[in-house]
Amino acid sequence: MTTTSTDDTIRVAIVDDHAILRSGLRMLIETHSGMLVVGEAGNRAEAFSLAEQERPDIILLDLDLAGESSLNFMQDLIRVSSARILVLTGVIEPEQHQRAVRLGAMGVVFKEKCVQDLISAIRQIDAGQVWLDPSIMTGLVADVQRKRDPEAEKINALTAREREITSLVCEGLKNREIADRLSISESTVRNHLTSVLNKLELSDRFELALYFYRHGLARPPQ
Question: HSE-up of 31 (CA within 13 Å, CB side)?
């Protein structure tokens, strides 16, 4: 049976292979108003079952699930649930954190951080913004800098509408939300984003957001 909640409640699913940690996280999260833990999972199969049944707003996802990396199935988990992924990890490997973001995670919180950081991250990601440790953002921007030289001609080739849509991407909006905001179709949004990626020679929307931050075309979330 699907857990019930009010429309403005942030519905959170916890995916971690340590039962004691899951229980602790549930108690911590549910002490804050407007948040509800709709279920827990300890492995890949349980995670997909929970995501499909409960359709949470946020999935709090550990990178290491009993020896299996959740990076291997993160994109599929996003697709079946439409949830926003917040990685909660004790793994100190910047490459994995950057890969998680490139695969669709909207935030990374380290387990040694205070509880308030976790709660703030959940609220910010639910609002459509990213939550990244400064060290992760620095690494991602540096990676873009290594790959991309500034080319004003490419930026100048963007239309006003393309810049407008990309600015909304930088705010964390999905295609459907952008379409509703601008009163256009989702296919039109996709077409514009494809055009922008082609013009700037970028591979995905997250790299696009970083490119806009790098060139001062959008401001990173605080």
Answer: 9
Q: What is the pLDDT of residues 147-175, one digit of tens each?
A: 555 567 788 889 999 999 999 998 889 99
Structure token digits, residue 137: 């953002």
Residues paired with 61 in a beta bridge:
15, 87
- Rg from Cα positions in the chain: 18
Report pTM: 0.62
Residue recorded with tokens 């959740």: 70
- The C-alpha atoms of residue 189 and residue 151 are separated, in whole angstroms, by 24
81 vs 83: CA distance, rounded Å: 5
> Which DSSP helix (H) or strand (E) runs through 24?
helix 19-30
Give me the domains of the chain, ranges plus CATH numbers. Answer: 10-139 (3.40.50.2300), 148-214 (1.10.10.10)
